[in-house]
Amino acid sequence: MSAEVAPGVHRIGGGFVGMYLLVEGGRATLVDAGTPRDRRRLERTLAAAGLGLDAVEAVLLTHAHPDHLGLAERLRADQGVPVEIHRADVAMATGVEPFRLSPHLPWWRPSVTRTLVAGLFARVPWTPPVREVVVFDDGEVLDVPGRPRVIHAPGHTAGSCVLYAEARRVLFVGDVLATVDIVTGREGPVLSPSFANVDDEQALASLDRLDGIVADVLLPGHGRPWTGGVAEALTHARRVGIHP
Length: 244
Fold this sequence. Notes:
The protein is of the alpha/beta class. The protein is 21% helix and 23% strand. The chain has a single domain, classed as Metallo-beta-lactamase, Chain A (4-Layer Sandwich).
């Protein structure tokens, strides 16, 4: 279900991947664009906030994997909404560098199989590339509703980022952290598994960039919101490590 998880921050629930709205003065930023089947969920969440689709002024992508791009091109083409992403992920987002599943995917694990099947039903493999993007870089405070700051945290992808809405004390962590382990099915803050990363060592090192950040809520791409504190989330993720 959709819910307001912090003042002016709405989680678009019920889908394959986490999508969020940052609402400010009747305008909204969409953080990650879900899957091609998530349009109605987006519209319902906007309506619950008293807004229509025309309130969306920007789409911010934490990274370029297709389960986060689903509605981006449609919103850009139909509504004129700019789609923004870190420069290191532009080639993947625009389809110049095609996304491919890892040959090391442990498909025999039940939780992984369930995730793959859910992705098929969500039409993730049919996500269109984004034909035109706006590039952001590390450290930028983006001039969009909510004004989040970009924290480049590579490893899951080359351009993976965390978006920090400091005034709301909210951290959008994309797939830099999840709160459910797709390999074991256990809940709690974890790094993405090795088969989903481009560089495991870099993914682990990127957690250092989040040390000292103050946030009441961490909002992941996969799993439930985490309200146990940033330091606690990082400690748990480092202790668990990265699944092979």
